[in-house]
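thought: user wants a sequence for this fold. calling inverse folding tool.
action: design(structure=
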């Protein structure tokens, strides 16, 4: 039995195809999200990888910002539920989840069965999200995937205290004009992201183990900054960008079993 989960986010589209609710047959991430061709491209690539067709899918569940626009779905499930389900499947010891995506950040507290007890979400401001990091990388004239390496060489963390992305951009430009190294500034940028994410985690009622999902979890500098802020290790879910789509595919399996 094959089920599919599709996570249509603001910045990217992710698809996971599961066999019998356990084995990932295919996973695809396309860096285009809601309102673009991203969802269709992610769907087509995942089917191509799996050598399956849409008619082979017993059930399809959609999640993310664009979930209601995906007409092929049998059901829509919130991203909070799907990210929690996906990460708990990959990291069963997780009790606190921090998920930082392109334009939002979430903190979720789970019980021992993976049920959501509490969550808080920042989806009103780009600060503390992947978009914030994209802006900072552009100002610093480096690639986004180089930020973790710069961070690892920092001998000091320079404060980037502005809570607004626009003001933080001006703050970074000011640091550069004063001759502050990119390494120190990037460490400060990562600390700023960590502070906002950890604030959400503390509000949920922080518990071990802490696991991270979302695209920003691929940035080891942010992971290190969150670990320092929380004073505990952080478990990064394997292929963290697909956790929402994985959760959706697991919910699709539940629906298939009811049929």
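)
observation: tool returned 259 residues.
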């Amino acid at each position: 039995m094959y089920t599919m989960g599709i996570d249509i986010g603001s910045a990217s589209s992710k698809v996971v195809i599961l066999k019998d609710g356990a084995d990932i047959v295919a996973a695809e991430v396309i860096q285009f999200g809601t309102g673009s061709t991203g969802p269709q491209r992610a769907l087509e690539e995942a089917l191509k990888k799996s050598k399956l067709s849409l008619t082979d899918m017993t059930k399809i569940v959609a999640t993310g910002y664009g979930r209601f626009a995906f007409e092929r779905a049998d059901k829509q499930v919130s991203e909070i539920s799907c990210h929690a389900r996906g990460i708990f499947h990959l990291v069963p010891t997780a009790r606190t989840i921090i998920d930082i995506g392109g334009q939002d950040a979430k903190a979720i507290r789970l019980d021992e069965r993976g049920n959501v007890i509490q969550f808080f979400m920042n989806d009103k401001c780009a600060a503390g999200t992947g978009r914030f990091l994209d802006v900072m990388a552009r100002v610093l004239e480096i690639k986004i995937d180089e930020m973790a390496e710069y961070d690892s060489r920092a001998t000091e963390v320079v404060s980037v205290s502005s809570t607004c992305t626009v003001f933080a951009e001006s703050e970074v430009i000011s640091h550069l004009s004063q001759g502050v190294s990119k390494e120190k500034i990037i460490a400060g940028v990562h600390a700023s992201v960590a502070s906002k994410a950890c604030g959400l985690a503390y509000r949920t009622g922080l518990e071990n183990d802490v696991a991270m999902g979302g695209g920003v979890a691929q940035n080891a500098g942010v992971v290190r900054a969150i670990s320092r802020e929380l004073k505990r290790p952080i478990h990064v879910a394997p292929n963290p960008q697909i956790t929402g789509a994985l959760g959706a595919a697991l919910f699709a399996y539940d629906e298939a079993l009811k049929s």
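thought: summarizing for user.
answer: Here is the designed sequence. The first strand starts at residue 2 and ends at 8.
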